[in-house]
Task: inverse folding
């Protein structure tokens, strides 16, 4: 089932938490929702799950709209809210049974589904423990199990790996990837590496607006419009080299990285490359070009650039 | 229907798992037993084979105990955030409210059922008016319904159980005693309206064995209004 968000606006009082955003997620796609705290990620997810009503706009999941068909939508969504709220005093198995009944799973199938979830989420050893006694990682698995128990076509996961250790993070990511092949998944995070590792597409949201939308390569390319090179040129007088580099017709800005080591950072003009010119320059002047690396823009930088202003 | 029962079942379990149910029942039976049999204007003091004493004690114990049971129903879910998961399941707000209401009512009915030995004992002491016993229990159940719905409403306000308890008590005390006291100082239709709002007025007549549709309508509408306000509270959160 596709998720179509159209001109969604949600206000808390007079403050717009989500400001007229539209996007689309296709079946079999894992969408990463990225943004600083308070950007509107959680709010958007709460509206998609019908927990909050929007001030304007519509969301359609398959052919269902949140305004007219909230009940059908609820049946097709699996939701893992922020902070993973669970009934701490219930044993895992009983909790899953409770959820299965609420989701309207047929009585005869409940047992099978619970066992399946216990297996998929790796809860074998913990299934009879009280949820409150479990470690954070296992609680998170219970959270995933309750979201998946009715085999929903749409999964909304709000910071699914928050507070987990690196091993658990890898496991949960693998699980999400596996699930994401047949289902529509939206997951939020502010850990960039995680989104990059799990998601097919990234949506960056800041102050309630979408500021970027695309695959991680798309985003890189966009931010990388200008080539940045780190160059080390030896045998010459640093200032002279600096002057010469700056006078190349393709360079925009030249910076010293470390003067004594003759390292420079060179930003080229848009859509141009200075590599050849630098090489030729060194050959002409008899300098030794001992290093030239392209600096790849990190996703962190893109993120900061997009969300800081 | 199945969803309502699923919710009620979970609430009941959590009453018993958290010992809340046992403490509540022990205290309820302790208080009402103490004052019915041992202390003050007890059965031996008034020398009548009647459960009037028990009913008037239970009238007060329920007033204090029901908010203590209802306070966590929504407040705890609000605090821990589980309300979000509950309301995004394919259940309506009404199913959630009715489920929680039913669970609490069942707990009260269990507590009341445990006082049946009182009835058996008293009926062996002399000729007991069985009709007024039945209506007395009916009255207690009706009062419970009203207080549960007030308690649910108070609980849906807050994520703090103490606040929920106090709000329920403050709303409850108007119906429990303040309207009754006020009614005396007003005359004419104002006095009549205020006296109609008093729970003690309606409970008095029911526990004496008179079941009037006026009383039934009063209790049922009070319950219903409480539940509607709870539903509005749940809805408001989604809009705000």
Result:
């Amino acid at each position: 089932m596709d998720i179509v968000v159209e001109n969604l606006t949600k206000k808390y009082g007079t403050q717009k938490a989500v400001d007229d955003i539209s996007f689309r997620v296709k079946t079999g796609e894992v969408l990463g929702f990225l943004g600083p705290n308070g950007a509107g990620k959680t709010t958007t997810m709460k509206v998609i799950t019908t927990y909050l009503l929007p001030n304007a706009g519509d969301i359609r999941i398959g052919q269902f709209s949140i305004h007219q068909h909230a009940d059908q939508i609820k049946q097709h969504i699996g939701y893992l809210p922020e902070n993973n709220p669970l009934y701490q005093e219930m044993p895992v198995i009983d909790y899953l049974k409770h959820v299965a009944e609420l989701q309207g799973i047929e009585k005869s199938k409940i047992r099978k589904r619970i066992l399946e979830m216990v297996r998929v989420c790796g809860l074998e050893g913990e299934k009879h423990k009280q949820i409150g006694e479990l470690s954070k990682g296992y609680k998170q698995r219970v959270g995933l199990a309750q979201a998946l128990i009715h085999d929903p076509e749409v999964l909304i996961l709000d910071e699914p790996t928050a507070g987990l250790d690196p091993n658990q993070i890898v496991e949960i990511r693998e699980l999400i990837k596996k699930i994401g092949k047949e289902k529509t998944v939206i997951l939020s995070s502010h850990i960039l590496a995680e989104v990059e590792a799990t998601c097919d597409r990234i949506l960056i949201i800041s102050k309630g607006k979408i500021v970027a939308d695309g695959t991680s390569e798309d985003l890189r390319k966009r931010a990388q419009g200008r080539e940045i090179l780190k160059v080390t040129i030896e045998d010459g007088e640093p200032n002279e080299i600096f002057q010469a580099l700056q006078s190349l017709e393709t360079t925009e800005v030249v910076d010293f990285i470390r003067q004594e080591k003759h390292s420079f950072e060179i930003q080229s003009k848009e859509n141009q490359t200075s590599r050849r010119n630098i090489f030729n320059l060194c050959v002409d002047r008899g300098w030794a070009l001992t290093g030239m690396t392209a600096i790849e823009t990190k996703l962190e930088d893109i993120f900061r650039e997009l969300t800081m202003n | 229907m199945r969803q309502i029962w699923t919710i009620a079942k979970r609430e009941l379990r959590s009453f018993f798992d958290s010992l809340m149910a046992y403490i509540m029942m022990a205290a309820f039976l302790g208080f009402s037993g103490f004052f019915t049999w041992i202390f003050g204007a007890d059965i031996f003091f008034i020398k009548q084979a009647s459960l009037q004493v028990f009913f008037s004690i239970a009238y007060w114990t329920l007033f204090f105990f029901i908010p203590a049971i209802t306070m966590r129903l929504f407040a705890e879910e609000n605090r821990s955030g589980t309300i979000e998961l509950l309301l995004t399941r394919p259940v309506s707000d009404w199913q959630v409210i009715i489920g929680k209401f039913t669970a609490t009512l069942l707990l009260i009915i269990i507590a009341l059922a445990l006082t049946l030995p009182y009835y058996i004992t008293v009926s062996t002491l002399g000729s007991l008016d069985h009709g007024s016993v039945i209506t007395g229990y009916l009255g207690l159940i009706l009062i419970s319904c009203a207080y549960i719905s007030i308690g649910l409403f108070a609980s849906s306000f807050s994520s703090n159980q103490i606040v929920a308890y106090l709000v329920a008590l403050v709303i409850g005390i108007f119906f429990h005693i303040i309207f009754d006291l006020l009614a005396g100082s007003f005359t004419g239709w104002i006095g009549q309206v205020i006296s109609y709002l008093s729970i003690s007025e309606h409970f008095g007549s029911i526990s004496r064995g008179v079941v009037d549709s006026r009383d039934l309508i009063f209790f049922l509408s009070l319950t219903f209004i409480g539940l509607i306000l709870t539903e509005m509270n749940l809805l408001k959160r989604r809009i705000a």
